[in-house]
Every structure is written in C-alpha cells, then in structure tokens.
Design a protein that fits this description.
Length: 390
C-alpha cells in the first residue's frame, strides 16, 4: 500500500477520533470584568471541549520590548510581570535559557501532549485491542465452519525441500522477534490498565521495565529478519497474472479444486508485502522513538502528502509533536501487522495440514506441494531432471 495513502488514512483516523470534540464554535465571552484576563466561563467552556479562541491569552504576553530592562529595580524580571512570563512559557514564546540543550529543551509546556495522551489511552487501545479480540473470535468461527484444510487423498509420504536453513533462520528471526515485540509492546501500551489490577504495582513496574528493555533491544533482530526475508523472497513475490486467477478462485478455500500457484500464491504475496511495507514503517517510527528528536519525519511526510493530494496538513511541527505522531503511527501500524500475522500463524499451524513443515524441517510432503504450489513443484522437478541429465 502506498505510504502516503497510509499517512492520509492515519490522519483521517485522528480527525475522526478528535475532530468532533473541537468542531463546535468558540462562545463569545465577555472578559470586561477581568480586564481581558481569563474568566470562569473560559474555563467551563474548555472543560466542555468547546473551541475557545486562546488569542486573548497567547497574544497577551506583556510587551518585553517596552518593559524596563532586567537590570532595573522593578523585580527579577524587570518590567515583565509573572503572568506575562507564565503566558509566554505556556504559548512557547519565551526566550528560555536552560542549561539543558537539544531540540526540545526550549519547549516547556506543550499543548498537543493532551491530545496525544487521550488518543493513546482511548481510541488506540480500544480500537486496536478490540480489533485483535474480534479477529481472534472470527478465526475461531472460521475454523469451526471450514475446519482444517487437509491434503486431498492424504500425504504422499515423500518430501521435497521447500525452504533452506538460511531461509528458515531468517523467518524465525523475524517471527520470534515480532512475537516478542508484540507482547512487550502491548504490555507497554495497555499494561497499566489491565495488569496493575491483576499483578499489583510493584510486579507490574518490574515487568514494564523488562518489557521496555526487551522491546528496545529485540527491535534490531526484527529489522535484520525483515531485510533477510526481503532479500531472499522478493523475487518470488512480484505480482503476476496468475495471482488474479488465484484470488478469483478464492484461493480454493471453499472449493474442491486448488488454483495453480508458483512458490508463493497470491495470499502469501499479500502477507509478504504487508509484512515488508508495515514492517518498514514500524521500524522507521521505532528508530525515531529510540533516538528521541533525532529522526523527525512527519513534517516532511505531510509536505509530500500535501503536494500529492492537495491537503493542508501541518508541515511545521514542534519536536514533541514529531515524537507524538511517531508514537501513535507506530502503534497503529503495529496493530495492523498483528492482525495480518494472526491470520498467517493460523494458516501455518492449525489451519492447514502439512504447512508448518515448510518452516519446521524445511521438507514438505510432495502431495501437499502439488496441491498448493503445483507450478513450483514442476519447476523444481524440471531443474532436478536437468541436473541429472547434465
Ligand atoms: C508461530 C508463528 C509463525 C508460524 C507458525 C509461521 C509459519 C510459516 C510458514 C509455515 C511459512 C511457509 C509457508 C509456505 O510453505 O509457503 C511462513 C512464511 C512466511 N512467514 Fe511465517 N510463521 C509465523 C510467524 C511469522 C511472523 C511473526 C512473521 C512476520 C512478522 C512471518 C512472516 C512470514 C512471511 C513474510 C512468510 C512468506 C510469505 C508467506 O508464506 O506467507 N511469519 N510462515
């Protein structure tokens, strides 16, 4: 799937989740009684999530240019009042002088943090977790309707090599690390809500710290596995006309006949490209989270989306906003990947007789291979007989 479309879909999700809260117009508030300062009505309106125009505060930062210099004897900030200073910090308009340096050091209060927090604690956990549970339930229903896909007429008893040791190593590096990342990622995302009541805060604190360590370090194995499997299998996953025939036949899931396929059928190609594209995206955002503020990528991505789709997404983001986008996108893509992988694990284990051997011993039953990958078997046999003849 096109990365820009994924970005656009993500923004639609964010807008749908939060847009409604901010869609209502700002009420006209009379601030004459407070001399233009905040009123109780402002506070109440914000609590009701009405769109209060904050210009009366953000543009009221005193006038440091005309104020007495700091050396005059008006106080530590010279002619600038404390409220002015607070508002300047609040609206990121304060010439901060902190010892800490770095891209985010000058941002002391960041509004978007609340939007990010609510998105993460609400829709990401609810829709993501809900989708996982629904999908698992659907697979159980599917299993009871379709049952295990068996080898028609039973196994032949002779085998053919499907994956070499290096291919199986690459697959299990990718698979093992992904499963560890999924479990530790879910603990980090939702453990506070679901595990603290069960384990208590002390045990959970240890588990959460361990999860973070595992998640950060195993990510490298995942990226190596991703590159290995991409290099080894990309040539077999280029879409061709045959894939369309396979899709039209529904992969033979509900029919007696098996559509023809080479080494990978259309269903497997979909799994391959889903893993590669989403795996690449989750790795990029993961690196951005691993090295905070060093790899900002969303402002530039939005710029590309705007120029292609004519949208008007923000192309100037604060360092914290970059991190918040990276965090939410990382979780959304990870959930999408988990859904695809649950289906993949199902078909590789309980869903189909003889499939697991391909990644277990590397040897599959010839009859299984003929039924699911007839053209690949023909290719291998042709090569073998050529080798014997020469
Ligand atoms: C317990 C977990 C898993 C099992 C039992 C499993 C099993 C298998 C099997 C049997 C195949 C070969 C199918 C064939 O003969 O053509 C395969 C291929 C593959 N696996 Fe897995 N797998 C698991 C987890 C994963 C994970 C977590 C990922 C990626 C994050 C992954 C990515 C792939 C890819 C890209 C292929 C090649 C395309 C395909 O056959 O669909 N696998 N897996």
């Amino acid at each position: 799937m096109n990365i820009k479309l994924l970005g656009a879909a993500f923004l639609v999700l964010v807008t749908l989740s939060f847009g409604h809260a901010w869609a209502q117009e700002s009420p006209g508030i009379d601030r004459s009684a407070t001399g233009g300062a905040q009123t109780l009505e402002d506070i109440m309106a914000r609590q009701q999530k009405l769109n209060v125009d904050g210009a009366f505060r953000s543009e009221n930062l005193g006038n440091p240019a005309n104020a007495a210099p700091i050396s005059d004897h008006l106080g530590t900030r010279g002619g600038v009042s404390r409220s002015d200073t607070y508002r300047a910090i609040r609206y990121n308009n304060f010439d901060a002088r902190t010892q800490a340096r770095g891209p985010a050091a000058d941002v002391m209060i960041q509004d978007g943090g609340m939007t990010w927090l609510k998105l993460r604690e609400g829709p990401v956990i609810n829709y993501g977790g809900g989708a996982l549970l629904c999908f698992l339930a659907l697979l159980v229903v599917f299993y009871f309707i379709r049952g295990k896909i068996m080898i028609d007429g039973g196994p032949a008893g002779t085998t053919i090599q499907r994956f070499k040791a290096v291919e199986r190593f690459g697959h299990w590096l990718l698979a093992g690390s992904f499963i560890a990342l999924a479990i530790t990622g879910l603990i980090t995302l939702m453990g506070r809500s679901f595990l603290i009541p069960v384990l208590g805060p002390e045990v959970f604190a240890t588990l959460a710290a361990g999860s973070k360590w595992v998640h950060n370090n195993i990510s490298w194995a995942f990226m190596i596995g991703l590159v290995m499997t991409f290099v080894m299998w990309v040539a077999h996953n280029i879409p061709d006309k045959l894939d369309w025939q396979w899709i039209k036949a529904g992969g033979g899931i509900f029919t007696k006949t098996h559509p023809s396929a080479k080494k990978f059928n259309a269903g497997q190609k979909i799994v391959f490209w889903t893993v590669m594209v989403l795996g690449f995206s989750v790795s990029l955002t993961g690196l951005s989270l691993l090295f905070p503020f060093q790899l900002p990528m969303f402002a530039d991505t939005f710029g590309v989306i705007n120029s292609v789709l004519g949208t008007e997404f923000a192309t100037v983001l604060t360092p914290h906003e970059e991190m918040q986008f990276a965090n939410i996108w990382h979780s959304v893509v990870a959930f999408a990947m988990m859904l695809a992988i649950i289906a993949h694990i199902y078909i590789g284990t309980v869903g189909m007789e003889g499939a697991f051997d391909a990644m277990g011993s590397g040897q599959v039953d010839v009859e299984w291979a003929r039924q699911h990958h007839d053209l690949w078997v023909a290719e291998v046999e042709a090569k073998q007989s050529k080798g014997e003849a020469s």
